[in-house]
Amino acid sequence: MANGPSQQNRAAIDDEGADQGGGVLVPAVSRAVRVLDTLAQRAGGATLTELADRCGLAKSTASNLLRTMVTEGLISYDVETRRYNLGPLLVEYGIAAVTRTTPVTEARPFMERLAERTELACLAIQPMPDGHFTAIAKIESRKDIKVTIEVGSRFDRTSPLLSQLADAWNEGPDAGAGDGAPDGGDVRARGFGAVFGEYRPELNVMGFPVFDRDGYPCLVIALLGIGEDLTPDDVEDLAQYLVTAARAITVRSGGRVPADYPAAGPEEAVS
Q1: 101-252: what CATH class?
Q2: pLDDT given at position 17
Q3: Domain-by-domain residue ranges, the chain?
Q4: Membrane-crossing residues (predicted)?
């Protein structure tokens, strides 16, 4: 889960560039992506001036770009507040993208079983090209008091659980179990990670990676509990199922399980 495109995405980009005779990028597309990324981080939207400043654009360039994006439905504009925000067309694109993401499709039965078994919220979190992570699917908690992390929430690369899992496999699929960060060997040997109270004092999380065809983590499935809803004993009770789920989702979505990843246990996989 290193910064930048995944191994397979890089290969696709390289192949496409070779087919076209070069790797020239289109500046207007890059600018539009910067606008969307800025708006994704600002729930209240942004003004023309704010977007121009944040995206490093001249006001005239930003104005023309925003007008085009509004016309195409990618962003919206509120005449009263004079603020731009993400547009309705992105909802349709987002739903289509998630439903076509094979690891998420294969992970959903396992997420539903984990949520049913623990009554906790279960998230699918994907590494993004610029290094941050985004929650792209969620099974809601059955508890009266719920964790408020929703689909679309963003996480930094330094988030405790995500950094654990990223560092455990940062040397690649066939690195030794002792490689990576100080705790990376233990996480890699167990096949999953757990963090108690490091995000917030009352929030405990555990999660496991799903691997792409190159054997690198391309998705994290995480359980979130408040206080005694998720304890170290609960983690031990779930340990074998997490390993079984990680292996099954990886294989079913066309990924490659690292050679040193723990063996699956006797518990049946979800069909």
Answers
A1: alpha beta
A2: 47
A3: 26-91, 101-252
A4: none
